[in-house]
Automatic annotation (TrEMBL):
Native species: Pseudo-nitzschia multistriata
Span list, region Disordered: 160-187
Keywords for this protein: Metal-binding, Nucleus, Zinc, Zinc-finger
Pfam families to which the protein is assigned, alphabetical: Methyltransf_32, zf-C2H2_jaz
One term under GO cellular component: nucleus
The name this protein goes by in its record: C2H2-type domain-containing protein
Domain Matrin-type: 71-101
Gene3D superfamilies: Classic Zinc Finger, Vaccinia Virus protein VP39
Length: 432
């Protein structure tokens, strides 16, 4: 009321020009006040989101050259173009589940630091909660990691898988694993202790039992001598394990029928044997037979590390031999049980991949193969016609020839930044 009277007196006393000027000044002041109030309201709301609703960092991306979307939830490693979509996400069950799981993982991580004189290789006091608690993101993990390269100049893994939108530009001479050496892949020589603390913390989240489902894995890795913990082999083995679980241990083998319960796994040409060990650790009722010409030092070290940290390896046995050892062991079994057996061939060299598949098919066994060094003459009728500059394309084509020949039920791929030999073929057995 008082303001209204004051404005009326001002209006009566001012000339028309002064009146216009005065109203303009008042309009500017009112606009400024409204802007400040709106800004205050926005900032306060953002604070509420961060402290009360989120319980996790939220960031607004300001980099026009970044592929990250406008609003980003660091806990879930997902982005949104609209703030409204972010708010809906923050109120959703998925976000709340990630936060709850992250809190539990953080508690376990803090516990590592309380182990006295021998804390885990994963623990570092400089690590923040969000480094550990955020959902696993391979994209974020790969940022800044040393890439596989033949040159002495350091290179780093670029964003995105080969052949996917957003991946680094490539030609036939820079494609994935060109000539078997370089490309957009993690350096296979990179070891766990080479990683900065925040990366080791992220890997802790990835390997944690709540994420991987593998009991004792973190303790086993911590107990290993550093020279045996190669990041590429670790990621690759866990990803293949996930494929075994998804393709063969969770799926029905025939429409409308109960899934076949695997009772034995033959890990042929096992090498370091970690995939078979992960199966043995997670499924004590499954017998795992690791087969190779000689046990590697890394195989023995990993088996001993599992045992030393309390994870039983009673269901894991190493057998010296080749494919013929499978036939011998099957003949020794009482009551057969072939259809409950998986032949696993991870990076079997040259003819080992297709020979292991044929043996499994002949005996009605399930099989899963991650091909490695495929020779065109073993899979193409006219191999001389294969003239490809990109090893990535050549490998995919030969895996396609394998799929056309053996009719797998599932075909999947491990991210090409982990391995250039990442196509997985699997069948639950029982013929074509």
């Amino acid at each position: 009321m008082g303001i209204d009277c004051g404005l009326r007196r001002m209006y009566n006393s001012l000339s028309p020009c002064r009146l216009v000027l005065s109203l303009a000044v008042q309009l500017i002041v009112v606009t400024f006040v409204i802007s400040e109030v709106a800004s205050l309201s926005y900032n306060s709301f953002g604070s509420v989101l961060k402290d009360d609703l989120l319980s996790a960092p939220v960031s607004q991306n300001q980099d026009p050259n970044s592929s990250k979307k406008g609003y980003w939830c660091d806990y879930c490693s997902v982005g949104f173009n609209k703030r409204k979509s972010l708010i809906e996400h923050l109120n959703g069950k998925r976000h709340k589940a990630v936060v709850a799981d992250g809190d539990a993982v953080w508690e376990d991580y803090v516990e590592l630091g309380n182990r006295g004189a021998s804390p885990s290789v994963f623990f570092d006091e400089s690590v923040t909660k969000i480094d550990v608690a955020r959902a696993w993101s391979l994209d974020k993990f790969m940022e800044g990691l040393r890439a596989r390269s033949r040159s002495s100049k350091a290179k780093f893994v670029a964003s995105g898988m080969v052949g996917t939108p957003g991946a680094s530009p490539s030609s036939s001479h820079t494609g994935n694993n060109f000539q078997g050496g370089a490309g957009n892949q993690i350096d296979p020589r990179l070891r766990l202790h080479d990683l900065p603390p925040s990366k080791r913390a992220a890997l802790f989240r990835y390997l944690h039992a709540s994420s991987s489902g593998i009991p004792g894995l973190i303790d086993m890795v911590s107990a290993l001598p550093p020279k045996y913990v190669r990041v590429k082999e670790l990621l690759e083995s866990v990803e293949v394990y996930f494929q075994v679980v998804d393709a063969l241990l969770k799926r029905s083998t025939e429409q409308g029928q109960k899934p076949k319960r695997l009772t034995r796994v033959y890990d042929i040409g096992c090498g370091h044997g970690l995939v078979g060990m992960l199966i043995a650790a997670s499924y004590p009722s499954i017998e795992v037979r690791s087969i190779d010409l000689v046990p590697r030092e890394s195989f023995l070290a990993q088996r001993d590390a599992f045992a030393s940290t309390g994870t039983s390896m009673d269901n894991l046995v190493f057998r010296t031999g080749d494919l013929s050892a499978i036939a011998e062991m099957e003949d020794e079994r009482v009551g057969g049980g072939e259809k409950h057996t998986l032949v696993l061939c991870v990076h079997g060299c040259k003819e080992l991949t297709h020979e292991s598949i044929e043996l499994a098919r002949d005996r009605g066994m399930a099989w899963l193969a991650l091909p490695c060094c495929l020779r065109a003459g073993d899979h193409l009728e006219h191999p001389g016609c294969l003239r490809l500059g990109s090893d990535h394309t050549r490998y995919a084509l030969l895996c396609g020839a394998l799929a056309g020949r053996y009719h797998p039920e599932t075909v999947a791929a491990i991210d090409s930044r982990i391995t250039g030999r990442g196509i997985v073929l699997a069948s639950s057995g029982g013929g074509d």
